[in-house]
Specification:
The chain has 292 residues and is of the alpha+beta class. It is 30% helix and 27% strand. It folds into 2 domains: 13-98, Phosphorylase Kinase, domain 1; 101-256, ATP-grasp fold, B domain (D-amino Acid Aminotransferase, Chain A, domain 1). The protein contains 7 helices and 16 strands. The strands form 4 sheets. Strands 8, 9, 12, 13, 14, 15 and 16 form a 7-stranded antiparallel beta sheet that branches. The protein has a 5-stranded antiparallel beta sheet with strand order 1-2-3-7-6. The chain is globular and about 60 Å long. It starts with 12 loop residues before the first strand and ends in a 6-residue tail after the last helix.
Length: 292
């Protein structure tokens, strides 16, 4: 299976992130999702087959499904002449989007106690300043979804922040609006996922300013930005099996990796199982067969 970990298009490179290569396209941007894998904020040397295609096609599904909830940055994929010969494998990874000024806050919504939220809860009984009921088990559903923002680190790890810290970063009015937007998007996404037999445990959104308006940018509800669990194998007290890179996280933690570069080499079976998890998530959520 072919893996694309880097692109080199005849356009001016705007940025190269952990997963996406973004190019300037006139007044707009062209985002290409590669197969690069990032875990614990470290990019691995190996890619996951089809991962970038899944991220793009699932984002496209969600942008369409959620367009009535919050406006997003997506534009029709109208490519210039010099890109119209792109291989289908690259075109399926591409999104044309408007330029927006990203807000310096990662907008995380949690409906369940998992990941770093579970670790914080064990220590303090709180997650990002939210006091939670005592006695919750790992993976327990919260009484209601909570907005738990984090910093948006250009390098190193994002750090959870509370409401006052978030308001200092973007201002009270903007913070209140992105909180409302993120909760509405999560609730709409969770309802749809539940109807497909999947629990949306938590997810991360990014917002940007475009002509003074707050819009949804980057990706939407993908296995890279979300924690998805199958309903039929969900139970509390454990970290449930998931449709995302948790499979990789669990593997490298069992190996005793210190979560610092360089990332360990992944065995072929871990790569292939991760690939299948991403594709299964796409097919269950979208209701469409993934074209390999």
């Amino acid at each position: 299976m072919q893996v694309t970990t880097k692109t080199d298009l005849p356009l001016k490179l705007f940025s190269r992130g952990k997963v996406r290569d973004t190019y300037e396209l006139g007044e707009d941007l062209l985002m290409i999702a590669t197969d690069r894998l990032s875990a614990f904020d470290v990019v691995f040397g190996q890619g996951i087959p089809y991962k970038g295609t899944v991220l793009t096609e699932l984002s496209l599904f969600w942008f369409e499904h959620l367009k009535g909830v919050v406006k997003n940055h997506l534009l029709p994929l109208d490519l210039p002449e010099n890109l119209r010969g792109l291989p289908v494998s690259l075109e399926r990874r591409a999104m044309r989007v408007v330029r927006a000024q990203p807000l310096p806050v990662e907008c995380v919504v949690r409906g369940y106690v998992a990941g770093s939220g579970w670790k914080d809860y064990q220590k303090t009984g709180m997650i990002c300043g939210h006091r939670l009921p005592a006695g919750l088990k790992q993976a327990a559903q919260l009484p209601q979804p909570i907005f738990t923002p984090s910093t948006k680190a250009t390098s190193g790890h994002d750090e959870n922040i509370d409401r006052s810290q978030g308001q200092k970063r973007v201002g009270k009015d903007v913070f209140d609006q992105i909180e409302e937007n993120a909760l509405r998007l999560y609730e709409a996404g969770a309802r749809h996922a539940q109807s497909k037999g999947i629990i949306l445990a938590d997810t991360k959104f990014e917002f940007g300013l475009r002509d003074g308006e707050i819009i949804l940018i980057d990706e939407a509800l993908t296995p890279d930005s979300s924690r998805y669990w199958p309903v039929d194998s969900y139970r509390t007290g454990i970290s449930p099996p998931s449709f995302d890179k948790q499979f990789v996280r669990d593997y490298v933690e069992r190996q005793g990796w210190d979560k610092k570069p360089p990332a360990p080499v992944l065995p072929e079976d871990v790569i292939l199982k991760t690939c299948e998890k991403y594709i299964e998530a796409y097919e269950k959520i979208s209701g469409q067969k993934f074209a390999r």
